[in-house]
Amino acid sequence: MCLTLNLKPTQNMPDTRIEDTDLMRKLVEGDRNSLGIIYDRYAGFVYRTAYRFLFNEEDARDITQSVFISLMQSAGRYRPEAKFTTWLYRITVNRCLNYKSSAHRRFRIREKENETLNIVKAPEEERPDLALERKKRIKRLENALLRLPERQRIAVILKRFEEMSYDEIALTLRCSKSSVESLLYRARQSLKKYFSE
Predict the structure, then answer these.
(1) Which domain, by its residues, includes 98?
(2) pLDDT digits over 40-88, tens only?
(3) Are residues 65 and 155 in the same domain?
(4) pTM (2 d.p.)
(5) If 0-12 CB within 10 Å is exposed, 13-18 middle and 19+ buried, where does residue 195 land?
(6) Is residue 111 part of a domain?
(7) Is the dihedral of CA 192, 93, 78, 182 positive or negative?
């Protein structure tokens, strides 16, 4: 049986300042509105994390859908000892790793014309020569990140793009803070070497 999650941006929702833990409790109690609020808050973060890991829009959308289906199904297992975002990122990272290692799929980079890593959007009035240069730099960054081992890449994505602390990354990756420091150090060294070539 294949589940699909058909959530649309919520409208006229109750107070969106409700704590994530309260939303999860309400979700366990069967309040689907809570899932809509959580989706509105975090779908962008989940999608960006998946995209920066897989570098493919369609795959990132699939992962995002999968994460929120998983969140809905496993809401009862959520324990608020750690930040909700840490738990959500852990689900996202695991989905990305499982997706890449799935026997049913072979991971490959799909290079489409004019498709680039969407880290920075150029202003509309930007000169074409500058836009082309920006695309080249972004593509080079994408290639550099893809050369990193998975755990290093995840650590870089969570630190650089999601601005997580070392402690949050350690919880997400289920490792020690010193392991995170080591992953990021090795990633920086590899990236420096790549960009100096």
Answers:
(1) 1-106
(2) 999 998 999 898 888 888 999 999 999 999 998 888 888 887 788 888 9
(3) no
(4) 0.65
(5) exposed
(6) no
(7) negative
